[in-house]
Amino acid sequence: KSISKKEKERLFRYEGKSLWKYAMPTFNFLYSKDYLYVLGYHYELCKRILKEENISKIVLTSQNNLFEKCMIAAGKEYNIPVLIIQHGIGLGTFKSVDVIQREKFAVWGECFQKSLQDLGVNEKQICITGNLALDNNKNNQNNNDHLSTKQFPEEHILIATSCYIEDRFIQKKEYFKMIEKVLKDVNSLNQKTILKIHPRERHLEEYKEIIQRINSKIIFSTSTSKKEYRELLEKSSVVITFGSSMTLEATAINKRNIIIDPFSDNSPLKLLSNHIGSVKIIPWKENIAQEISHLLKSEQNYKNDIKKLFYKLDGKAHERVVEEIYKL
User: Fold this and answer.
1) Is 29 within 8 Å of 35 (Cβ atoms)?
2) In the chain, which residues have pLDDT < 50?
3) Of 137, 96, 144, 109, nearest in space to 310 by CA
4) Cα–Cα distance between 277 and 314 in angstroms, integer?
5) Residue 273 DSSP symbol
6) pLDDT tens digits for 55-98?
7) Exposed, middle or buried: residue 227 (CB in 10 Å: 0-12, 13-18, 19+)?
């Protein structure tokens, strides 16, 4: 408040135009009494937890949200080491890695290590452990007990959506325009198709309306158990994502897969190019049916991507993570 409006407009000037009116609502929120109270409350709460419970090490799966940042800051106050375990494909793609103290990152593979280093994270603060979520692939390799009781069709095309509306990357109207075009393309192949909706998505009826409008027999799947999720992947002939971590899960079990870029321009998915190995990114306006047809006829082998993306698929990523926790 001590900075005048005129000065704010000057500070936010770009190419002769002030952008302050666009930034103002965000700043009003971040410096509001309500937000500052919540921020301070969580910081003090984290400090109290660390002190009263005699915590010696902190393990997180993110460093982006309010709670995680407060916990890391509280850890710095008491000189408690922090390990952040990678949980998504996007780690290191955006300049959102702001190291508060010397947090250590446990990443899936070499490409994620390089991305963090490119953002300024010291090599000593990064360890490569492999992907925890893929440990079950090794354990369940010859065990049918992991299959669900649901009867998913064999050799289906699996389309897995992402929360682009909920995360405010794409406007609702534009998003469903893209989805309808993609579903029409896939529907033209006359292949068994399952549309798996991300559990955080809210606009389920819009998907159903599109399926009905294009007269499709696409199977609509919302909530799935871990067993059902695994079966959806294993029974698929092609996996289509919009840039989610399921891309890498499909790659790990050598399933043909492509990424459809849902953006019309200035796509942030270009930043994923170093994190997806040999998987192709296809703009949504292109002929998706043609790309899938080519993929179905090809012999796909992702073995050369394994070390770069996952380090090892030996079922021991959890052991390596535990070792790193004890090293803190």
Assistant:
1) yes
2) 139-149
3) 109
4) 19
5) G
6) 999 999 988 889 999 999 999 999 999 999 998 898 888 766 66
7) middle
